[in-house]
Design a protein that fits this description.
This protein has 158 residues and is mainly beta. It has two helices and nine strands, in the order ββββαββββαβ.
Length: 158
């Protein structure tokens, strides 16, 4: 994966999927943390970003998504567990299979990282994101009005 530490900063190249279904968005949470974020993962050296997202979505959610389009290029600066992070993210709008069991809005579903970390997936209403502990924070409003062309975002959360 493309991730390294330098000068007390952790850098990573991450892709994430925007999965929309019936005015809901699919979000992910990892225990014991109380915040939500878009599903996805790290890009591997030599891997195309969109291929990485298809792979990560299949591994984490079981969904075989199709890439619709790149929505945001994100430079994300934040602190987590006392560490400073600099993340470069490509956020894609993706389409899941129409018959996927994971499209049941009434239930959570689970995945697992290779290291055993449990992943919790839940559908959240787009009109209820303003009060959700969602990172990066621009998504609270941004997911309700996706830009029509690729947009560069610089986010600094503390």
């Amino acid at each position: 994966m493309i991730a390294f530490e330098r000068n007390d900063w952790l850098f990573d190249f991450r892709v994430a999927g925007i999965v929309l279904h019936r005015e809901h968005v699919l979000l992910l949470r990892v225990e014991p943390h109380d915040f939500w974020f878009l599903p996805g993962g790290h890009v591997e050296i030599g891997e195309l970003a969109d291929h990485a997202l298809v792979r990560e979505m299949r591994e984490e959610t079981g969904l075989q998504v199709e890439i619709n389009r790149l929505v945001w290029v994100l430079e994300n600066f934040f602190a987590h567990e006392g560490r400073r992070h600099h993340e470069l993210g490509f956020l894609y709008l993706v389409t899941p299979p129409a018959d996927a069991a994971e499209l049941d809005l009434s239930r959570e579903f689970y995945g697992q990282e290779e290291n055993g970390t449990q992943l919790i997936f839940r559908w959240h209403r787009l009109d209820a994101l303003a009060d959700l502990h969602l990172h990066p924070s621009f998504l609270r409003t941004g997911l309700n009005a996706l830009p029509g062309s690729i947009t560069h975002i610089v986010q600094k959360d503390t």
